[in-house]
């Protein structure tokens, strides 16, 4: 299956690195491509210069409208492998046959910013997966956060308008720290749960490879007997869930705005293929109302302690795109792209998305034939009576283009359900026409409190700091006060601290949810911790012991730790190791740890700045100095947690610290 998709894409591939004559788009060989056709060397350009007109016209139309949300994205190809058959729950072929390898394309993205915004902003991340199955394309279009801001799709334009740069001045870009967003939050309390997640470390991931993915909505799985189960989809990263700290994320945005997309690209190029396991939460239809939350509410999770996650397969990204525009930018996702055995629930946000995504692609990709673009084309044949339209790339033969027809033996004809034809689940629906919200959707605060209760003290402090930063950027006192009033309904301690920090009014009455319930799965503190693919900056200050340096580098490599050697200038060490970065080009915000090797009695100022930032961001720091007095000018305290004196401990101790990633008990 994977090879089938690769071969299909190769049909549309032109390798411009191969020797070939320059031609126009019509195949005409051109002898000149530097000068337009003129009447004399200093005369006017002539209208008959078809080559100039073709080249310039194509350039003028190279860009397509960017996505309204999720504009900033990066994609990669990969495969999905099923661990065990799920035929008990679904008839979807790719979830039944463990011998099949299903090719996929995955696009990660931020939500708020434009294509030119930075990767490391505080934002929700899109996590969209296109499965190229034998039964058609299936798109699982989700986020790295399992809930959303709103309950009904009719409010989606309002939410997006509020979170986007404000229309009067187009500020701020790639950020939610402004009045209109927090005004929306204060006026729409269904956002309470989501803003807790958005203000947590989940919204500033260390890497796209180190974040969870969620289908967000409640879907249905339907088996061959027609029995249905409700399901939520999870992607669990094999490297664990890890984040940046806020100061680090802001600095990285300036030092390398492409930090996440470069990290993903380089990992795949090195063969450090990112992996996630697919998990399912499954609820039988009989238990739809067995919980103290509505399972159709997109602002609610199904706590994993109540509904365990069943791990069923693995996603591996193993190939970068050949052309960003043709693949990552033109890929078209849609939650309505399903296969037999996967169906929808009555989640009102999902129902609206089923309309919106097709409508969006018509504008972005220029018409109804976007499914014929190679990255969107299914691996299985497709036949129907849809013809013509802008950008039609198929030459249809035959007299008939309608159903039913007798002139062509009614071809193409509908496929019976028992032969793979799709059939919507026959759910009984009975109710009067109404615009409104179910009473079971009205608890806005309990799960917001559950999320906060489940965090460790340092994670809770990060949430309070994030609210203080975001609301501190707002200008309207009413917006600040309304947001604090919302926080007061979740947790009084958050409201008190934030109100004090931003000068807002704390409500007189404590209206917080009275609950001590926790869900350990919501904290990132207990996640998988590995040194694999972490990146260490080896800082040189003076002339190192080359044999010792080589030994340490080999130990890092043996533990799958990446490294860059940083010095004042680029050079080769002993003919074996290369200094790959200078203190001018490297920055502590772009590394997971630092290893300082100093043979001088004085540290360079930029080396001091580097280790101080590493220290302040709670990262592991290895120290090998010939004169400890050299550290006195810095604010690094060598006896603090996560500081490894390599004159006293081994490099493997430092590697263990790299795996730990952060030392939150450190005094900074």
Topology:
Elements: H1 2-10, H2 50-60, E1 73-82, E2 101-110, E3 125-133, E4 136-143, H3 156-163, H4 179-187, H5 192-198, E5 213-214, E6 219-222, E7 228-237, H6 246-255, H7 259-270, E8 275-284, E9 310-320, H8 324-329, E10 342-344, H9 348-364, H10 446-454, H11 457-472, H12 477-488, H13 492-502, E11 535-541, H14 546-558, E12 562-567, E13 572-573, E14 577-578, E15 581-582, E16 593-598, H15 605-616, E17 621-625, E18 643-645, H16 651-660
Parallel strand pairs: 11-12, 11-16, 12-15, 16-17, 17-18
Antiparallel strand pairs: 1-2, 1-9, 2-3, 3-4, 5-7, 6-7, 6-10, 7-8, 8-9, 13-14
The helix fraction, in percent, is 25-40%
Task: Give me the CATH architecture of the domain at 73-151 and 202-376, please.
Answer: Beta Barrel
Which regions have little confidence, pLDDT < 50, spanning 5+ residues? none
Count of individual helical segments? 16
What is the strand tally?
A: 18
CATH fourth-tier homologous superfamily of the domain at 73-151 and 202-376: Catalase core domain
Oligomer: single chain
What is the C-level CATH assignment of the domain at 73-151 and 202-376?
Answer: Mainly Beta
Q: Report the portion of residues in β strands.
A: 15-25%
Mean pLDDT: 95
Rg on CA atoms, Å: 28 Å
> Structural class, from helix and strand content?
alpha/beta
Predict the CATH topology of the domain at 73-151 and 202-376. Catalase HpII,  Chain A, domain 1
**Morphology call:** globular
Describe the sheet with the most strands: 10 strands, antiparallel
> Whole-Å distance between the termini?
52 Å
């Amino acid at each position: 299956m994977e090879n089938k998709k690769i071969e299909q894409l190769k049909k549309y591939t032109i390798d411009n690195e191969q020797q070939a004559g320059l031609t126009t788009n019509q195949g005409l060989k051109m002898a000149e491509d530097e000068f337009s056709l003129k009447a004399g060397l200093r005369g006017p350009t002539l209208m008959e210069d078809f080559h100039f007109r073709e080249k310039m016209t194509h350039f003028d139309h190279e860009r397509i409208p960017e996505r309204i949300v999720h504009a900033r994205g990066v994609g990669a190809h990969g495969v999905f492998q099923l661990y065990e058959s799920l035929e008990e729950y679904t008839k979807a072929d790719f979830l039944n046959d463990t011998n099949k390898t299903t090719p996929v394309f995955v696009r990660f993205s931020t939500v708020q910013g434009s294509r030119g915004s930075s990767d490391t902003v505080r934002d929700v991340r899109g996590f969209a997966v296109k499965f190229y199955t034998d039964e058609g394309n299936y798109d699982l279009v989700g986020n790295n956060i399992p809930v959303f801001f709103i309950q009904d799709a009719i409010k989606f334009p309002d939410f997006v308008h509020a979170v986007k740069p404000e229309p009067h001045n187009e500020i701020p870009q790639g950020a939610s720290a402004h009045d209109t967003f927090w005004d929306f939050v204060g006026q729409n309390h269904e956002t309470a749960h989501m803003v807790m997640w958005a203000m947590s470390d989940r919204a500033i991931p260390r890497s796209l490879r180190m974040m969870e993915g969620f289908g967000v909505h409640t879907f249905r799985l339907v088996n061959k007997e027609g029995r249905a189960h409700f399901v939520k989809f999870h992607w669990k990263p094999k490297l664990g869930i890890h984040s940046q700290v806020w100061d680090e994320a802001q600095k990285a945005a300036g030092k390398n705005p492409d930090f996440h997309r470069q990290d993903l690209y380089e990992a795949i190029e090195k063969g450090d293929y990112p992996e996630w396991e697919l998990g399912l939460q499954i609820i039988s239809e009989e238990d739809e109302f067995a919980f103290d939350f509505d399972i159709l509410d997109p602002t609610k999770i199904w706590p994993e302690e109540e509904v365990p996650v069943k791990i069923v397969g693995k996603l591996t990204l193993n190939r970068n795109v050949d052309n960003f525009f043709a693949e990552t930018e033109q890929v078209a996702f849609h939650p309505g792209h399903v296969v037999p055995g996967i169906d929808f629930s009555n989640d009102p946000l999902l129902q609206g998305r089923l309309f919106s995504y097709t409508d969006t692609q018509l504008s972005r990709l220029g018409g109804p034939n976007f499914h014929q673009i190679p990255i969107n084309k299914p691996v299985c044949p497709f036949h129907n009576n849809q013809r013509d339209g802008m950008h039609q790339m198929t030459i249809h033969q035959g007299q008939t283009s309608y159903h039913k027809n007798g002139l062509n033996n009614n071809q193409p004809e509908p496929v019976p359900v028992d032969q793979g034809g799709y059939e919507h689940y026959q759910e009984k629906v009975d109710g009067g026409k109404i615009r409104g919200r179910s009473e079971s959707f009205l608890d806005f605060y309990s799960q917001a409190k559950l999320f906060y209760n489940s965090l460790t003290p340092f994670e809770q402090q990060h949430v309070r700091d994030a609210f203080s930063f975001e609301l501190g950027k707002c200008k309207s006192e009413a917006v600040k006060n309304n947001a604090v009033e919302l926080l007061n309904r979740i947790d009084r301690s958050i409201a008190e601290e934030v109100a004090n920090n931003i000068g807002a009014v704390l409500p007189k009455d404590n209206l917080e949810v009275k609950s001590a319930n926790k869900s350990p799965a919501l904290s990132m503190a207990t996640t998988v911790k590995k040194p694999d693919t972490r990146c260490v900056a080896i800082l040189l200050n003076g002339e190192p012991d080359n044999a010792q340096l080589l030994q340490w580098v080999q130990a890092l490599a043996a533990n799958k730790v990446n490294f860059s050697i940083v010095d004042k200038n680029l050079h080769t060490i002993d003919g074996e190791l290369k200094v790959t970065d200078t203190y001018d080009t490297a920055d502590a915000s772009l590394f997971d740890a630092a290893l300082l090797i100093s043979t001088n009695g004085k540290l360079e100022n930029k080396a001091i700045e580097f280790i101080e930032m590493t220290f302040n961001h709670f990262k592991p720091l290895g120290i090998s100095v010939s004169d400890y007095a050299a550290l006195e000018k810095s604010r690094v305290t060598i006896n603090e947690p996560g500081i490894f004196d390599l004159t006293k401990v081994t490099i493997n101790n430092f590697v263990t610290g790299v795996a730990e990633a952060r030392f939150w008990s450190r005094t900074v």
